[in-house]
């Protein structure tokens, strides 16, 4: 028996019935653990998971394509897992449920990291894998509200979970001391390889998968804010690792642009292809979590914009990828520079900067950020081949437009004005 959502007014009661103790411990770490009194008066759960682990489903059932099935029934408020021992299915399933239940209460469910400064200023971090979401939201000068799943209600922000699910491939104490120290008795390690005699873990071993993980209660992190709630966000940071190298290191977004880039959920992966051709691959995931959303992406984007407008939040698009050229010719933007940009966002100093507008995407970029070389702030300046820059910029703009085609037919807002507004905020060429 556990809870989801630290906001006491909107918490959800969940019950986990599993064939394996490992699955129960995993969810005990990842959900919010009840006190003995709360357990005593728990009552009927709002949602129940039945996890049969490796017990397979019947492959001869109509439409069944494998011996694995994950079924979610919103009417019965149940989830049944058959034929897989991947514990993350439970976490993902409940997150999907929250994406359905919370918007019904006018609460926005978010796939994001969240932290808070000493003065109570809250920042949300959105970003797909490899964009630096975990690295940039983990900040020793700020309190961690949560690393992955949040709600934004009329009370402010709250973490949905009671634990963290950290990647631990190549983990070293010097680089990530908080995660290293959180791996202690009670923490669940997934897919790691260890010496059976000494029980020593080899974090560099990728023989099972590169996606090795640690699941631990959030209170194992020293600067976690318990309870995991905070006031309304002041900044919303959208992270993209742009391997094409044409997005600026930082730009300030207006509300329509925020909705456009939130719905797009862009990042680019570097694909190692034949004959050493390393052409970046654009990836788009609506609302930075397409796998979890239950309603149309525009609904979540409109809710985000409404809440930002009401509480005076500013959105930023931060590129943690390449500068001075695409992958192969340019260089990855140095992490210390990105940290300086994030610091300037938190402190509010970036709001005071002078801005210029870029062509095609129409992004507002600052002319200077303390501690960051000014020449990299406008991507065009850092490319020696200006024609190649323009060609690549148009190529990326075309990929954005093609991805957005699927959302164009969806009508939202009075007289369809919102759809028009969001479309107009996209690249113009």
Automatic annotation (TrEMBL):
It catalyses: oxaloacetate + ATP = phosphoenolpyruvate + ADP + CO2. Coiled coil: none annotated. The keyword Transferase applies. One of its GO terms (cellular component) is cytosol. PROSITE patterns: PEPCK_ATP. Pfam families: PEPCK_ATP. Keywords: ATP-binding, Cytoplasm, Decarboxylase, Gluconeogenesis, Kinase, Lyase, Nucleotide-binding, Pyruvate, Transferase. Its EC number is 4.1.1.49. It is an enzyme of class 4 (lyase). It is found in: Cytoplasm. InterPro entries: PEP_carboxykinase_ATP (IPR001272), PEP_carboxykinase_C (IPR013035), PEP_carboxykinase_N (IPR008210), PEPCK_ATP_CS (IPR015994). Pathway: Carbohydrate biosynthesis; gluconeogenesis. One of its GO terms (biological process) is gluconeogenesis. The keyword Cytoplasm applies. One of its GO terms (molecular function) is phosphoenolpyruvate carboxykinase (ATP) activity. CDD domains: PEPCK_ATP. NCBIfam families: pckA, PRK09344.1-2, PRK09344.1-3. Belongs to the phosphoenolpyruvate carboxykinase (ATP) family. This is phosphoenolpyruvate carboxykinase (ATP). The lineage of its organism: Eukaryota, Viridiplantae, Streptophyta, Embryophyta, Tracheophyta.
């Amino acid at each position: 028996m556990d809870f989801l959502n630290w906001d006491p007014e909107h918490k959800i009661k969940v019950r986990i019935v599993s064939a394996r103790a490992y699955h129960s411990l995993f969810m005990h770490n990842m959900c919010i653990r009840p006190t003995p009194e709360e357990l005593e008066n728990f009552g009927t759960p709002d949602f129940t998971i039945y996890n049969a682990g490796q017990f397979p489903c019947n492959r001869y059932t109509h439409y069944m394509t494998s011996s694995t099935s994950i079924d979610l029934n919103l009417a019965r408020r149940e989830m049944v897992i058959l034929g897989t021992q991947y514990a993350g299915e439970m976490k993902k399933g409940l997150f999907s449920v929250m994406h359905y239940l919370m918007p019904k209460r006018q609460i926005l469910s978010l796939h994001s990291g969240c932290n808070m400064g000493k003065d109570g200023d809250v920042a949300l971090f959105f970003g797909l894998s490899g964009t630096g979401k975990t690295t940039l939201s983990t900040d020793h000068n700020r309190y961690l509200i949560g690393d992955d799943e949040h709600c934004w209600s009329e009370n402010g922000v709250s973490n949905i979970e009671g634990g963290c699910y950290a990647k631990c491939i190549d983990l070293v104490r010097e680089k990530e001391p908080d995660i290293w120290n959180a791996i202690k008795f009670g923490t669940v390690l997934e897919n790691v390889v260890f010496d059976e005699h000494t029980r020593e873990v080899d974090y560099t071993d990728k023989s099972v998968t590169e996606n090795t993980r640690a699941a631990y209660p959030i209170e194992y992190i020293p600067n976690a804010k318990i309870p995991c709630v905070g006031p309304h966000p002041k900044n919303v940071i959208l992270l993209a690792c742009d391997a094409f190298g044409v997005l600026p290191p930082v730009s300030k977004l207006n509300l329509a642009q925020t909705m456009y880039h939130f719905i797009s959920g862009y990042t680019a992966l570097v694909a190692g292809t034949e004959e050493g051709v390393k052409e970046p691959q654009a990836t788009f995931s609506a609302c930075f979590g397409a796998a979890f959303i239950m309603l149309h992406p525009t609904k979540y984007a409109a809710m985000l914009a409404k809440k930002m407008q009401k509480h005076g939040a500013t959105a930023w698009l931060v590129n943690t990828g390449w500068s001075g050229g695409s992958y192969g010719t340019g260089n990855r933007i140095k992490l210390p520079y990105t940290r300086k940009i994030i610091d300037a966002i938190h402190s509010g100093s970036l709001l005071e900067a002078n801005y210029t507008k870029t062509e095609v995407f129409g992004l507002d970029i600052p002319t200077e950020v303390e501690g960051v070389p000014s020449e990299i702030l406008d991507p065009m300046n850092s490319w020696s081949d200006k024609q190649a820059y323009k060609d690549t910029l148009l190529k990326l703009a075309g990929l954005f437009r093609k991805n957005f085609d699927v959302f164009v037919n969806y009508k939202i807002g009075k007289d369809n004005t919102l759809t028009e507004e969001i479309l107009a905020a996209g690249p113009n060429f």
